Amino acid sequence: MSTENMNLTLKVWRQTDNKAQGNLVDYKVSDVSPDMSFLEMFDVLNEDLITKGDDPIVFDHDCREGICGACSMYINGRPHGPKELVTTCQLHMRSFKDGDTIVVEPWRAKAFPVIKDLAVDRTAFDRIIAAGGFISVNTGNAQDANAIPIPKSQSDAAFEAAACIACGACVATCKNASAMLFTSAKISQLALLPQGQPERYRRAQSMVAQMDAEGFGNCTNTGACEAECPKGISLENIARMNRDFYHAKFVSEEEV
Amino acid sequence: MAELNANIPEGDLTEKWTKLRSSMPLVNPSNKRSIEIIVVGSGLAGASAAATLAEMGYKVKCFCFQDSPRRAHSIAAQGGINAAKNYQNDGDSTYRLFYDTIKGGDYRAREANVHRLAEVSSNIIDQCVAQGVPLAREYGGLLDNRSFGGTQVQRTFYAAGQTGQQLLLGAYSSLERQIGMGKVEMYTRHEMLDVVIIDGKARGIIARNLITGELERHFGHAVLIASGGYGNVFYLSTNAMGSNVTAAWKAHKKGAFFGNPCYTQIHPTCIPVSGEHQSKLTLMSESLRNDGRIWVPKKKDDTRKPSEIPEDERDYYLERRYPAFGNLVPRDVASRAAKERCDAGYGVGKSKLAVYLDFTANTERYGRIEANKHNIHNPDKATCMRLGREVIKEKYGNLFDMYKQITGEDPYELPMRIYPAVHYTMGGLWVDYNLMTTVPGLYALGEANFSDHGANRLGASALMQGLADGYFVIPYTIGSYLSKELATKPISTDHPAFVEAENAAKATIDKFLSINGTKSVDYFHKKLGKIMWEKCGMARNAQGLTDAIEEIRTLRKEFWSDVRVPGTTGSFNPELEKAGRVADFIELGELMCIDALNRNESCGGHFREEYQTPEGEALRDDENFSYVAAWEYFGDTQFKLHKEELKFENIKVAQRSYK
Amino acid sequence: MASFGNAFSSSIGKKLIMGITGLFLILFLIVHVFINSLIFFNDGGQTFNQGAEFMAHNWIIRAGEIVLFVGLLAHIYQGLRLVFENRAARPVKYAAYNGSANSKWYSRSMGLLGTLLLIFLIVHLSDFWVVSRFTGIPTEDALGKEDLFAVMVDKFQNLGIVILYVLAMVSLAYHLLHGFASAFQTLGWNHKKYSPIIRAFGFWYSIIISVLFALMPVAIYTGIIK
Predict the structure, then answer these.
(1) Count of domains forming chain C
(2) pTM to 2 decimal places
(3) Percentages of chain B per state (helix, strand, coil), in multiples of 5
(4) Which of A23, B176, B329, B464 shows a CA-CA span of 20 to 30 A to B618?
(5) pLDDT tens readout for residues B261-316
(6) Alpha-carbon distance A163 to nearest alpha carbon in chain B (angstroms)
(7) Where are the domains of chain A?
(8) Cα separations (Å) of B342 from B253, B285, B300, B351?
C-alpha cells in the first residue's frame, strides 16, 4: 500500500484492430497519486500520449463506480487487478507501490474478440440473454406485486445472482474461457423466483445452447471465476444451472 | 413570445389520463408491423419503450453507444423507486405522491404529467416483479419499503443499493427477448449524430458505427430520444463518463425546444473530490440519510477527529433547521445547507469541503433492538455497535464497501465525509403531454425530457419516471401520431434530407480531425466544467452568469481552433466521440447560463443568490416565473424563449417548507 | 418423438460424462485398494491371492470390468477432448497469468495429471492386468492359488518402477483432490450444508487411497512386506 506518489512502468497490449497483430508496449508513468483509480492513471497516460501526438490507448469504461460492467482490464495476470470484489474502475493506485511494473492485457477468449487495444467485443453475453434470460411477460400483463409472497432467503439469493454486471471477468480468468458463471447467474436468478418457474427448464437449456454456440470453453470447476468475480457471484449457481439442465434433458418430456 | 400548447387533455385531473387512454386512436396489429420506430438510448426509458413497442407489434430499431444495452447509466441508480402502493399502510395515495412530487419540484412541474406519473407508478412495480426483478422483501415474503427525501411516508421500493441495476436488467431482459425474436434490431456501439427531418416531421437518424467509423442512415416513422441527462456538462458529476447531451442537442438544433436547461440537481451525499486527476464523482445513496445523521463541528476549523468531538459540540444542522423532515429534506435543500456550512468555515476533511454523515447513533439503536431479539439484556455499547453493524451492513453493505474502496477509510469506524455533486438534470427537451417535442414525430423520454420533476427531483423518482414513460406512457401516446402515418411508406434513405444530414455530420467529424491543435478534448471539458460549477452550479448570480456566458464563448472559439483529436474517422476512436460530445456540451453550457440568467427567482435546484428569504431559503417569484422556459435554437448561440404557463388547479401553491 | 438432443454433447453434458465416469472410477479405486491392502496381512500374499483370484474369476466382476474399461475410456476420451476444446477457446494466451491467485494448481492441471496417470496406467496394466488375465501367472502359492503376489514382489524389486508408482500416486492424489468434489459440483450437488462434508470426505479419500497405494511398492521394496 502506497501513500506517496509513485513512478510505474506499464506494459500495455496495443492492437490497432481485430485483424492486426498486437504486442505489449512499455510506458512510463510518473507522479501517480495513490488516490487515483487505475483508469484515472490511464487518463493521465492518454493525455500525455495525445499531447505527444501518439494514439491514446483504447479501453472500455463508463460508470466508473463498479456497476456498469464496462471496464475490463487484465492486470498482472488477474481480471480487474489484485484486489478482490472490485472492478478496474474502483481499483485505486494505493494498491500498488513505487517502481512496480504492471502488465495490462485485454480479456482473452475466442468468444470475446479484441476490437482495439484493451477493448473487446462482449456481445456474446447479450445473445445468451436473448436466448432465454428473461421471463416472458409483456408490459401490462402483471398482477399485483405482492400477490405472490417470496421467502426473503430465496429473494435474497435471487438478488445475489442478479448482481452480475456482465463484465466478463469470469470468462477472462477461467483457464478454459468458460462463461458458465455468467450464464448460471441469470438462470439461477430466475429459477429461484416463482415468476421464473413456467420457463425454468426451457430457459436453462436454450441459454446453455447459446453459450456453447458462442465458442466459450467448458467448465472444469477450478473456482477461479467465483474468486475473481467483482460481485461475488457464487459457484452454487453453476450447480443449479447443471441441475436445471439435467431436468430439461432427462426429466422433462418437452423438447426445446 | 409564443405560448406553447402542452396538449393536456380536458377534464378532471384524476381522469385526464384514463380518458385520453381510452379515446386515443389505435393502430391495428397488421399496420403496426409496417411501422418503424427508432429508439435512441437503452436505459430505463429507452429499453422499456423499445421492448414494449416491439411487444405491441411495431418494428423497432434501438441504438446505444455502450457495448451492451445493459450498461446504460440507469444501472448506477442506487436507492430506489417510488410507487404509491401504500403497502406500509402509512397513508400514501396517488394524490400524495403527486402532491409530494409537485411540492418537491418547487411548483415548477406540470400538474397533469405528474399526476399521470403517480397513477402509473404502481403498475411499474407490478411489471418489474413479474419480470423477476428481485426487490427487497420482508420475512413475510412481501415487498419492503424505505423512506426517501421530501416525503413522510415509506413508498420507496429497492434492491439493496442496486435498484437501478435491477430495474434496468429487467427492462434489458425484456428488450433482449424482443431482440431474440427479431422484433427489435439492436445497434450497440452506435452514436446518433443527427435527426433527419422531412416535411417538418422526424423521419430518421444519422448514426455513427463507433467501431468502423461508418455513418449510417436509418429511417423511422417516429424517433424517440431516451438518451438521458446532461450532467456531464459540469465535467465532474455522478454521471457515467459517456453520458452526453449529443442526441438531445442535435434534436434541439433541428427544431425541438429545450425546456428549463438550467434546472440541475446537485445531490447532497457524494464522495468529495480528492484531487486534480479526478474523472468522476461517486454518489452515496440518499437512502443513507434514513440512518445517517449529517453534522459539522460547532467550532470553525475544528481539526479534531470526529470521534473526539463530543455530542454537544456537533451541529446537526439539518435537524436544527428543519425539525419536521430533519435529515430527509429534499436534495436541493440538503445540498444548499451543506454548502452554506462549508462556506461559513465549518467544513471538515483536508479540503474543508465536506460534512459528516454519521451512522453511530442508528447503529447503536439497531444494535439494541437486535440485542433484545437475542435476549441480551442491558447490552453494553460495544455489543450494540457490533450487532448494529450487522444490520447496517445488510442495508447498505455495498455502499459502505464502495466508500471504503474509493476513500481508503472504513465508514463503519469513521463517519463518511460527503459533499454535494451534480447528479441529475431536470431540464431537457420540451415535450407535450404525449411526450412529443415541438418536432412532430420526435419524442423525448426519461431524463432526456424536462417534464415531471420541476425545479428539483425527489429521490427515487427518476427510475419511476423513466419506466413510466417507457412502459406505460409512450406506447399509448405514440398511437395518436402513428395512426395518422399509416399511409406513409418507408422513405428511402437516399432522400436528400438523409444525404444532407450525413454530409453535415461528416463535415463536423472531418473538422475535428483537421484542427490538429495542441490541447486534448478533456482539457476543454474540464475548463467548461469549472466555469459551469463555479458560476452556474449550486448558487448563481447575474454577474457570474453574464461572465460565464462570455467565458464559454471564448472557450468555444479556442476549442474549435486548438483542440487535438488524434486518430482517424474510419476506426474505433473514443477521442473523436468525446470531441463531438464536448462540442455540444459547450453550446449547451451557454444556453444553461442564459436560462439561469433569465430566471430571476430561486426555485428548487436553481438558486439565484439575489433571490432568497432571510433564512437563506429559495425565494420563488410565482407572478413572473411560473412557466416552463422552452428555448428555440436559431443557429450560432441565438436562442429564443417560449413560455408554457404552469397552471395549478389542484394544488395550492405555497412557499415550500420542510420545517 | 422427443429425444435427448444435445444432452451429452453440450458443455454441461460433457461435464456430466466426466463427473459420472469419474465417480465410477472413484468407486472402483475403493475396491482396488481394499483387495490390494490384503498384502498388509504380511502372510506371504495368501489372503491377497485369494482376493485376486476371486476378482479374476467371478463373472459379475468380469462383467463389471468391461463397464469399468468403457468408463475409463470415456473418461480419457472426454478429458482429452475437453483439454483441446478448452485450449481452442483461448487462441491468444495471456502474457501474464496469475492463476495461483484464484485457484489451486492441480484444479487447473487435471489434463496434465490425467495424462501422467494414463502413462502410468499403461505400465501398470501391462505389469499386472495383462499378466493375470492373458499371459497367465507363472507360479502358484502354498494354497494352490495363482500367485499374483509373487509377480508383485518381483516387479517392486526395481527401484525405478517403485519411484514411478509413487509419483503416479502423487498425481492420483492431486487428481482426486480436485476430481472428487468437482464431480459432485458437476452433478449439481452443491448445498451449503452438505458441500463442506463432501469436500472434507473427498480430501481424506484422496489422501488415504493414494497413500495406501503408494505404501505397497515401498513396503515391498524395503522388504517390510515379504
Answers:
(1) 1
(2) 0.97
(3) 40, 15, 40
(4) B464
(5) 999 999 999 999 988 889 999 999 888 998 999 999 999 989 999 999 999 999 99
(6) 8
(7) 6-115, 123-251
(8) 40, 21, 10, 10
